[in-house]
Structure formats: C-alpha cells, structure tokens
Amino acid sequence: MLPMPIGDLKAIADELAETGGRVRVLWQRPESLAFVARGREYRSEFHIDPVDEVMYMIKGEMDLHYRLEDGKKDVVVLKEGCSIYTAAGIPHSPRFPADAFLLVIERQRLEGEIDRFQWFCEECDNFLHEEQFVVSDYRSDPVSAAYQNFFNSQAYRTCNACGHVTPNPFED
Questions:
Q1: I need a surface site. Which of 93, 94, 138, 149 has the fewest CB within 10 A?
Q2: Close Cβ partners of 39 (under 8 Å, ≥ 6 residues apart)
Q3: What is the pLDDT of residues 37-51, one digit of tens each?
Q4: What is the mean pLDDT of the chain?
Q5: Residue 156, Cβ density class (10 Å: 0-12 exposed, 13-18 middle, ≥19 buried)
Q6: What is the pTM of this model?
C-alpha cells in the first residue's frame, strides 16, 4: 500500500519559523510533489517552472509578480487561505515575508526538465542573469542555490544597460 502522508501545515510552518528553514517537502512521488515554503524577503527573481503548480497561502499574504508574453510585468495578491494556479512556463516571482508560508503542489520534474531563474534590473528592467537547474530532488532547495550563485557575483548583479548594481541582501 502506498503511504498517505498527512501534513499539519500549521505545525510545519511553525517548525520552519523556529529553525529558519525555507522549504519542507511533504511528499515527492513521480506524479506529485508538495512542499511548504517560508517567505524570502529578498526574493526578486522570476522562476520559470517546467510544470503547472497550485499555490495555497497558509499564513500571511503574497505578492505574486509575473511576466506576460510581451514581457510586461503584473502583480496579483494572494491572501491567506486563497490559492492560485500557475501554468508551466509563466515567469513568476512569489514575494512574501519570512513570517508567511505557502503550500505548493506540482508534478515532480521529469528527467532533464529544467527550472530557470531570471533576474532583471530593478532600475530599468534590463535582463541581468539566468540560473538553470535540473531538479531531481526538491529537498535540495534549488531557489537557495540560484540565489547563492546570483548574489555571490557582482558581475551578475550589475546591469550592462544602466550600471545599477542589485544589492546583495546577505552582505553586512
């Protein structure tokens, strides 16, 4: 018999808050992946997910920035207790504080599927940098790896159009 995991979302959110963790995978099966994410107050990139996802705001509120096909940006607000469906391929940036928590349900990546993370200049919206990952295990927290690569490089953070340097939130 297959396991039927039960996730106490409030307890998981409390645990992430207490430990400082960012992601807790509830289950990871070939056709289904679910995890709870804690907000990253410094999040600014747009994630291009190779699969559809459903997001449910457990606690707090999220500004979900996204890019339209013509490159224009828009924002929707996801309030506590609300959910949203985001189709594969839509560049989106879930921005919410560290005391807010989100449940994400999607299909586990197939072999070779690529997650992309793109940054744009805060001043002029020029493309800055892209990180790509093949995510075979979501417990590896690819978002943190993408951020580490981006913020550790001043060249990646420097706009070649206007010269603005995206600040590194991890520097004192």
A1: 149
A2: 60, 62, 95, 96, 97, 98, 99, 100, 101, 102
A3: 999 888 899 999 999
A4: 92
A5: middle
A6: 0.89
